């Protein structure tokens, strides 16, 4: 099983939870731009102040900012033998930027977690994060459909192994589906 992984899926698909479990099981770092950005917000950095407004609206933080963060993160020693990207890339320019750094070219698997729209809305509103108002949730989904979902075709067309997994079910059930597709 390759160790350079990318998890794709709409907001509320359980990506973050599955990413945590997979990274613990595989011993690879969890690279989540959402976690990094929330850390900036919590620390009150200039970047965090700028990003908070955008995140609260459910829009995308600029490609330049997130690409810079990921590029820097992937050069850290613990990412030398593998990593799991969660929440990045979210747009075509981000995917192209990732392909320009060594990590993108060596992606071993792109796993797409699929969950129906109504279930996504129900889950997101139950999470209660500050960026989880009904309007924000709807916008995040629309942004996912227009900017991020097309990356599935981008990766397929460029010959990367793309697998889809049903994201509805118990956490460990979904995890085992992901492990199964990674092993095959
Ligand atoms: P997440 O935790 O992945 O759902 O990310 C939370 C929010 O952070 C998103 O709704 C975006 O506003 C922002 N964000 C996270 N990752 C990215 C990214 N790769 N590109 C742009 N914005 C991002």
Provide a count of the helices.
10
Largest sheet: 5 strands, parallel
Q: Percent of residues in beta strands?
A: 5-15%
Contiguous low-pLDDT stretches (5 residues minimum) are: none
User: Which fold name is given in CATH as the topology?
Assistant: Rossmann fold
Shape: globular
With strands numbered from the N-terminus, the spatial order across the biggest sheet is: 2-3-1-4-5
Report the C-alpha radius of gyration, rounded.
16 Å
List the bound ligands: adenosine monophosphate
Name the CATH homologous superfamily.
P-loop containing nucleotide triphosphate hydrolases
The CATH class? Alpha Beta
Give a count of the beta strands, DSSP E runs of length 2 or more.
5
Task: Report the structural category.
Answer: alpha/beta
Mean residue pLDDT: 93
Question: What proportion of the residues is helical, as a percent range?
Answer: 55-70%
Tally of distinct domains: 1
Task: Write the CATH architecture name.
Answer: 3-Layer(aba) Sandwich
Word description of this protein:
Helix 1 crosses helix 10, helix 2 packs across helix 3 and helix 7 crosses helix 8. The protein is globular. 58% of the residues lie in helices and 12% in strands. Strands 2-3-1-4-5 form a five-stranded parallel β-sheet, with helices on both faces. The mean pLDDT is 93. It has ten helices and five strands, in the order E-H-E-H-H-H-E-H-H-E-H-H-H-E-H. The protein is α/β, with parallel strands linked by helices and 184 residues long. The termini are close together. It has one domain (3-178): Rossmann fold (3-Layer(aba) Sandwich). It binds adenosine monophosphate. The site of adenosine monophosphate has 16 residues, from helix 2 and helix 3.
């Amino acid at each position: 099983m390759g160790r350079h992984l990318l998890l794709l899926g709409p907001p509320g698909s359980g990506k973050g939870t599955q990413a945590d479990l997979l990274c613990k099981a595989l011993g690879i770092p969890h690279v989540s731009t959402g976690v990094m950005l929330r850390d900036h917000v919590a620390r009150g950095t200039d970047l965090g102040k700028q990003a908070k407004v955008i995140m609260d609206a459910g829009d995308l933080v600029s490609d330049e900012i997130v690409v810079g963060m990921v590029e820097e993160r992937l050069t850290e020693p613990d990412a030398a033998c593998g990593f799991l990207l969660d929440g990045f890339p979210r747009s075509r320019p981000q995917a192209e930027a990732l392909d320009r750094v060594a990590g993108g070219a060596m992606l071993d698997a792109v796993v797409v977690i699929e969950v129906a729209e109504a279930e996504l809305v129900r889950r997101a509103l139950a999470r209660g994060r500050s960026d989880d108002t009904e309007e924000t949730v709807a916008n995040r989904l629309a942004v996912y459909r227009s900017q991020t979902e097309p990356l599935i075709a981008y990766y397929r067309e460029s010959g990367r192994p793309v697998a889809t997994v049903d994201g509805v079910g118990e956490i460990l059930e979904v995890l085992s589906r992901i492990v199964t597709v990674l092993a095959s």
